[in-house]
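Predict the assembly for these two chains.
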Amino acid sequence: MSDLNVYELLNRKRRGGPLEPREIEAFVDRYTTGSIPDYQMSALLMAIAINGMTAEEMATLTQAMLRSGEQWHLRDQYDFVADKHSTGGVGDKVSLVLSPWVGACGVKIGMLSGRGLGHTGGTLDKLEAIPRFNARLSRDQFQRCIDEVNCVISTSTEGIAPADKKIYALRDVTGTVESLPLITASIMSKKLAMGASSLILDVKTGSGAFMRHYQESKALALSLIAAAAGSGTRVEALITDMNRPLGIAAGNANEIVETIEVLKGNGPADVEEVTRAQAVRVLVMSGRFDEQSAVTALDDALRSGRALDQARKWITSQGGDAKIADDYSLLPQPTETFEVRAPRSGFITAIDTYQAGMFTVDLGAGRKKADDIIDYAAGVMFDRRSGDEVKAGETIARIQLGHSKRDAEELRKRFLSFVTFGDAPPPGRPLVFEHLK
Amino acid sequence: MSDLNVYELLNRKRRGGPLEPREIEAFVDRYTTGSIPDYQMSALLMAIAINGMTAEEMATLTQAMLRSGEQWHLRDQYDFVADKHSTGGVGDKVSLVLSPWVGACGVKIGMLSGRGLGHTGGTLDKLEAIPRFNARLSRDQFQRCIDEVNCVISTSTEGIAPADKKIYALRDVTGTVESLPLITASIMSKKLAMGASSLILDVKTGSGAFMRHYQESKALALSLIAAAAGSGTRVEALITDMNRPLGIAAGNANEIVETIEVLKGNGPADVEEVTRAQAVRVLVMSGRFDEQSAVTALDDALRSGRALDQARKWITSQGGDAKIADDYSLLPQPTETFEVRAPRSGFITAIDTYQAGMFTVDLGAGRKKADDIIDYAAGVMFDRRSGDEVKAGETIARIQLGHSKRDAEELRKRFLSFVTFGDAPPPGRPLVFEHLK
């Protein structure tokens, strides 16, 4: 490590030259332990953000970041254990539906998940809308849930990828968040530190996604897959639509309700379809199903009520009140609901999903800053969605308030500002675009 | 200043977008006063080093850096006062010859100069070889010299461009030294803070120059000129050769001797020619001469002995012992001199000037680190130079030692390693390539 020439390395990356694996490892190690200062790391981050990284550099960076902390090697402790990650969206409750659904098919799945920040919601925030649900498990508690009920979702522990935590905080204040290799290493270092047998990536694309443009989303998917090369975790990705909110509910408590409805077989078709596509891949990657038998098993788990029952067991295992599955009034309830009515007859042709996400955040359902407090009852119900025909005066959405008082007319006006109406339905758009592996 | 969005600015520069003048000014100001941390400045420096800057951005950066400290506005206090800057080379004593020569023609000239670092020598170091010479003048002392004897060379005071000092220290450890806009702003912020009426830039090109390749040197010259736009200081540049040491002497005391010899009319022709080209531009920019009358005035000052007399007055005004002009033994003397002999007959076809500079530094005549101590008597005399015909066994150079003992054979061997011999003289090469304004 003493032979690391930091100046020469920074000069080389500035000129676009390659970094050696041992250099990347030493730089990350020395930064994490404090012997390389922030100002040298931020210079390197900017050089990477502008000049990019080769696939090999990126895989090395990912490995260096994950090795900065605990490695759980879960795949060595179970015949098979799945992981799943979404790049984030509005109304994205796929993880919540997927976990018990896959678990009900006898396949173990565990996720170290994140909280919401910016326009996208957070899986952990939604789960914490359930009374007494514990989303801060120790590693032992995490594995006990996998052992006992096949599924678990918890926050990443302090010990996982400390390099990523330190680097991410620095990226956040140095204009280096938007960088494919840095995004990739950040996501994959945390995922590969858990070390599942497989990882299904839900890479969203569209106005409410982290990557709006299809080619960017695909590049991210391929980059995430490439960074896992040689890690021992099998990674596949689905590129799915985030040009419209997923499902009807966007918020926290209301998304728990929608999750349970999907598991009861009554949920919005889009949530079921996007979740099913991923569940099929999880089951196939387990090696115990082919595509055909996976679909059959999933249908059976849903129709038989086993998926719903699995959700009850899962919620209970993490300390939550499973009675919410049968009595939604046990969840945080809106203090006030404002209906939004269609200003004209015709079709909803588009909902700007980024704006819809920011609207939901502003109601209190998400965070603009990391220390904002979530208002679990706040949210939006998109009763009519892109492509739906509406009549003037008909209710197209319900704005749900939690703790804060807000002006109804102002909210209605802002809501309508990101919804577009027309005389004909918009062209159809698939929910799942592409499967990459 | 409170409306400066640092994150957005860094993101924009990362993407190659332009920075507004007020943003550059606020960033530099807040960095200098400490409210922007090193890690954000280093990210910006790396983004600038990779993505470059427009001429306007660069001029604004230069202005922001110079405004961080004192502005002397010398041009407002004299009818005319010149400044001169060299990008540095081996044996470059042009400033030492130029000052009294121009001063003897009745034109005032003042320079805030630097010390040597790396393979190039430093004007102040050479002057400090003169007993009692004071190169650390206060602003008052600096101006008194201009008032009384027309010329002065001193170190930049603490008050000049503190932003440059802080930014340069950060560039040095973040791989962002090699950057045209950052080099430009660093040089010009110090020069424009003094605020002369004119500035002649001696931009060196070749193996002993900061920029080895002609196009790089020309780009630097144009960049330096562009950064002065609107500053009130008229800037011109000459691109001159540094593919061979300038003159015969490289060191400190020996370069003072060579300077006096040039002023006596006995110096090496190359030193006189390169200095004369710049002196002509200084005189013409004063508005009191055209090219013809400038040449006549300079010839007259030299032949009459007024240039030499001016040097005596100048040295005296800065506290130095002017008797050195008539008795070189008053200067630090070599303790030992090793002659280097031609290993063959033929022509010297090249001297790698970077290697020659590093050799001189290693003798003690320069600095590898900023706190190295100069050995004023140490240096090299290049008695035979590129293009000269030599006979086997003839003395081609003298290696002069100061305080340190060294192995003669080792030094001779190393010296010959950067000198190339051949059967025919190398093609001729001009000393002054181009005049830019």
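Chain A touches chain B through 31 residues (CB under 8 Å). Chain A is about 45% helix and 15% strand.
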